[in-house]
Specification:
By secondary structure, the protein is mostly beta strands. It has 3 helices and 42 strands. A hairpin with a 4-residue loop joins strand 18 and strand 19. The chain is globular, with a radius of gyration of 27 Å.
């Protein structure tokens, strides 16, 4: 058993002593400045400006850039589409689906970073980018040697310890190119516990589940590699591959207690043995006065999933009640894409992008030995996209980027609800980038967006623990929206930087729950059976504001101290299909924020800090349910870090300092949400302190 009280006391003493030490050192010691220099409209940070953080990887550097937060875009969308990540590496977007910005940066050694550049995306000849974009400039090891990074990050908590969470990557020269190999094991042992009360529509207790213990272990070994080669003529060849074996698990044990009745032991489990693989290749070369980039991607996923809910009655008479859903899910994606760009003598950047993709979901489902009527189905999509782009600097303070095109999609489904449909949808955007002064950037973007349908909404699904399901709907159409966004970045000199983003959206064909009632004949009389599926509601609106800022305390003499803030506030509105009253869209973010503080003590290898974060989202509504998920306090963390323990960086952290709990309330109605309440489930679960050790190094 962990000595939690002793660890907490020792951790607090260490932070107190470091605070006292830093107060003395801050009076007369200098630290490296994080103020960039301006060069051709770009903010430039040299790699040595981040030495005080003793970075091991490029990711360690990027996370310390004042006022910048990595945005990995929409990772769930099929295809590659236009660039939406705000990170470039050597002026090029990060290719692939599994390789997001954080993953790519984590595998670049800090020793290979030359500089970091912040630039307005609309001034680049890369369609889709706008606002603040970071370009990482690297150089390979000319000596041809091998270098690498590793990180070991065990966590200790009452729900289980994860000793094998970590990553190791190596990179070096291979012939005339550069290679990277990485092995990652993503592991956690999440868990919560607490009572659940179930009451009737009048608030009277029906029964309680006490104790109720939920465990969510996860393990995912991942092997990946990449190879890059630049020819003497400037052609660039990239090759990458990844294979992963995620093993998510869920187990919830509870004792159902009812007054004057024998207890019922309940067990819910979910097991998934997935493997997925991705292969990506691209080639960028000069052609006809411009450059052509050809990209090919193949991704496959196989996921057998078993979900079980069982009840064991302690009266010794009633037989057990079991419900088992077995599903086999196969998914695949094949993408071919070409991007051709050129510039005219007048300074205009032109481009045309073509993309073709084939996607599929093949689902098989059996519930207690009987196939689901619409659970055995294959959904396929053939999709094509063409986008033309235009970019031009109108003056030394104003530039414009525009892109216009559309996409074609043909979706087919086999099985009980087999159907084939086609869509043609226009899409595009116009972005203006204005630089009214040397310390301010403004960006205005108006965009026509086309969403993508979730193939799982086409097939029938069941939640066995709740005995509820979705019928599946082959008539779904993709969401479309108009979005306007204004982004303003203000540099505060030695004090740091801040970015404010204001946006508004007008959305049509919103994907939400809709009724799919059916009529059957019982004893010669028609009876309506109420059902629901994921469908489309006519329209919705959404608007909000976001703030990203960094405050450096060097100007007041507190050398090495930095405060980062990221926050979002949003409001949406949609007419409810049951009540006719306007409400927020399902699960829409209401607010979120994260505050991080870090102090690198000058003339020492010590750093300390902490963070606070919180969030709230709108309820998730079914036609006969209201599901509300909330937290009772903020999630807080403190850490102490030493940057040279036998050449390693060692950090100790305490997470969830305020013993945050999560509360879930499910209100079930007799028929629809405009009728009487049937029963209410109310549970509150805590997950306790989380102790985390991080050991990282380079070789």
């Amino acid at each position: 058993m962990h000595n939690y009280k002793g660890l907490l006391a020792g951790f607090g003493l260490a932070i107190w002593s470091l605070t006292q030490h830093s107060a003395v050192l801050a009076q007369d010691l200098e630290s490296a400045s994080l103020q960039p220099r301006n060069e051709n409209g770009r903010e430039i940070y040299n790699a040595n400006q981040f030495e005080r953080f003793n970075p091991r990887t490029a990711l360690d550097m990027v996370r310390q850039v004042p006022g910048f937060v990595i945005d990995s875009g929409n990772e769930e969308e099929r295809g590659l589409g236009q660039a939406d990540e705000n990170v470039l590496i050597n002026g090029a977007r990060i290719a692939g689906k599994n390789m997001d910005a954080e993953t790519a940066l984590q595998r670049i050694s800090a020793s290979n970073v030359v500089r970091l550049e912040i630039v307005d995306g609309a001034s680049l000849s890369i369609t889709g980018l706008s606002g603040q974009v970071l370009n990482l400039v690297t150089s390979s090891d000319a000596s041809g040697g091998i270098s690498g990074n590793f990180k070991w990050e065990p966590r200790f908590r009452r729900s289980g310890d994860s000793w094998l969470n970590g990553e190791v990557s190596i990179n070096g020269k291979l012939g005339k190119g550069d290679f990277t190999l990485a092995f990652v094991n993503e592991q956690f042992r999440n868990g919560v516990q607490g009572p659940e009360m179930v009451t009737d529509g009048f608030g009277d207790l029906l029964f309680r589940r006490d104790p109720e213990i939920a465990r969510f272990p996860f393990n995912a070994p991942i092997v990946s590699g990449s190879y890059t080669r630049t020819s003497d003529a400037g052609s660039i060849f990239n090759l990458s591959a990844e294979v992963a074996f995620p093993r998510p698990r869920t187990r919830i044990d509870s004792t159902r207690v009812t007054v004057n009745e024998p207890d019922i032991l309940e067990l819910f489990t979910r097991r998934e043995n997935e493997w997925n693989a991705e292969f990506n290749i691209d080639y960028d070369f000069a052609l006809g006065g411009g450059r052509l980039k050809l990209i090919g991607l193949q991704r496959l996923e196989h996921s057998p999933v078993d979900t079980f809910f069982g009840q064991t009655f302690t009266d010794g008479i009633t037989p057990p009640a079991n419900d088992l859903l077995e599903r086999i899910l196969d998914e695949g994606e094949t993408v071919f894409r070409s991007e051709y760009s050129w510039s005219t003598s007048g300074g205009t950047d032109w481009g045309i992008n073509l993309e073709g993709a084939y996607n599929f979901l093949d689902a098989e489902a059996i519930r207690n030995g009987t196939p689901l009527a619409n659970g055995n189905s294959k959904v396929t999509e053939y999709r094509g996209e063409v986008i033309g782009s235009f970019g031009r600097t109108l003056s030394d303070k104003l530039s414009i980027q525009a892109q216009l095109g559309g996409e074609y999609s043909r979706i087919s489904q086999t099985g009980a609800n087999g159907l084939t449909r086609s869509f043609i949808r226009p899409k595009g955007s116009v972005t203006l980038a204005l630089k009214p002064s040397a310390t301010m950037d403004l960006s205005l973007k108006i965009e026509r967006q086309v969403g993508q349908l979730d193939f799982f909404d086409f097939v029938e699904s069941v939640e066995v623990d709740q005995n509820i399901g979705d019928a599946g709907n082959p008539n779904l159409v993709p969401t479309q929206s108009w979005r306007a966004e204004i982004e303003m970045t203000k540099r505060l000199g030695p004090w740091g930087s801040g970015t404010v983003t204001i946006f508004g959206e007008k959305i049509t064909d919103v994907v939400d729950a809709i009724p799919v009632d059916t009529t059957t004949i019982v004893n010669g009389m028609p009876v309506v059976i109420l059902g629901e599926a994921t469908g489309n509601l006519p329209k919705a609106t959404r608007f909000g504001v976001g703030l990203v800022s960094s405050i450096l305390f060097d100007p007041i003499g507190w050398k090495g101290a930095k405060l980062d803030f990221e926050g979002n506030l949003a409001k949406s509105s949609i007419e409810d299909p049951v009540t006719g009253i306007f409400r927020r869209t399902n699960n829409d973010e209401i607010f979120s924020y994260e505050i991080n503080f870090r102090h690198d003590i000058p003339n020492s290898n010590w750093a300390w800090g902490g963070s606070i974060e919180d969030e709230d989202s709108a309820d998730n509504l079914r036609l006969d349910q209201i599901n509300a998920f909330t937290f009772d306090s903020v999630f807080a963390t403190v850490f102490v870090e030493h940057k040279d323990v036998f050449g390693l960086t060692v950090r100790g952290a305490l997470n969830n300092l305020f013993n945050r709990s999560e509360t879930f309330v499910r209100t079930n109605f007799v028929n629809r949400r405009d009728g009487p309440i049937d029963f209410v489930e109310d549970r509150s679960r805590r997950f306790g302190l989380i102790y985390q050790l991080t050991v990282s190094g380079s070789f």
